[in-house]
């Protein structure tokens, strides 16, 4: 069952929940930030609208206490909103409370991610396409040297996330496929005290090999997310599958795919299933009413949202296979994917979780974001359209009227389409779309992304992201812990537990 949450006037790119699960924040191309109150008896419209961004918003984050909400946009701006007044009876009578309480313009390119410290409201990390991660400390005086709070990289950062329990550890990803853990104490501060590699204490292997293909691939990592215990992290890769890692293990333990239907039947050749070729995707862990993150959800280019049940870590490790290069080169299983840290190294073949628990429908175009409520059995999805869809396993809901059955049919992409110029003009609202009579007014955006799907939907990761070994990377890998022994709980000399 599901329903639409309507409040935006353009694509919805970012969703996040406050720590207590009361507030859902949403933002996109409007650009404005909407706040939805899940304590209401009737969740029919946003409880509050915040202004400030002047460009598309792609990231939102709540502080540890839930008092502050942060947004980051493509004009390099970060805005802070103080929502503590919303709990006051006089809050709605005061003026100017929908404006930012603080802003920052230190970045020089689009903000891709913001992550708040899991315990302290005054600390947050921001990552941008300028290759810079900034540690913002609200306790410091203005005269504090901001250069001591910057980490500069030679590639575009695509995500940053604090570890939920080890507050000195954070994870980063970039558009070259590098995924790693870093130590705040080694990454920031005076240059003389920083580590040579930007505070990296652990690297994850993201380089993919395919039997029968001579080259390897290193796909861009769109985003990453920890489970609430911090023992696992899932990453979304462009032109590849969502991939699951155990915190201390450099090699993945599972991939998520849609090769089978939820009933176990194989998806027929030619039928659309999970893919990520066209937009930046953001997935999430959750318990669907439980305090254990047993599920993972992610949006797809086939206009669906996929929900997988995640087995126990020990079962996934036991099922993962390791194939030596000499055997791999014999091509006994053409097309099989494995992960390797070097061209001649062993291939680690993780479990493919190919049967999703559910495939959620209800969207007419690409789903970019899937967010599981931290405490209630809800999944929120958003993407190219201007609405958010609230999904529930039951028709009754404490915060909204009875939900309706979600339409099961999924729209197909037409083989013929308007020109790229016409699709772009329709998406921008400059040209009317005579073929679109949808009540939501998303016809232009849908036409544009249909065209992008036709152009990029069948791209192969091995042609888009070919991997060439870097001599410096190869030498640094010699000191990287790639032992599959889970008894070692130290990475790079930093105790993780």
UniProtKB/TrEMBL annotation:
List, alphabetically, the GO terms of the cellular component aspect: Cul4-RING E3 ubiquitin ligase complex; cytoplasm
Q: Where is this region: Disordered?
A: 460-497
Q: What is this protein called?
A: WD40 repeat-like protein
Bias type Acidic residues, positions = 469-491
Looking at the keywords, is Transferase present?
A: no
Give the WD repeat ranges: 5-46
Instruction: Give the GO biological process terms.
Output: negative regulation of fatty acid biosynthetic process
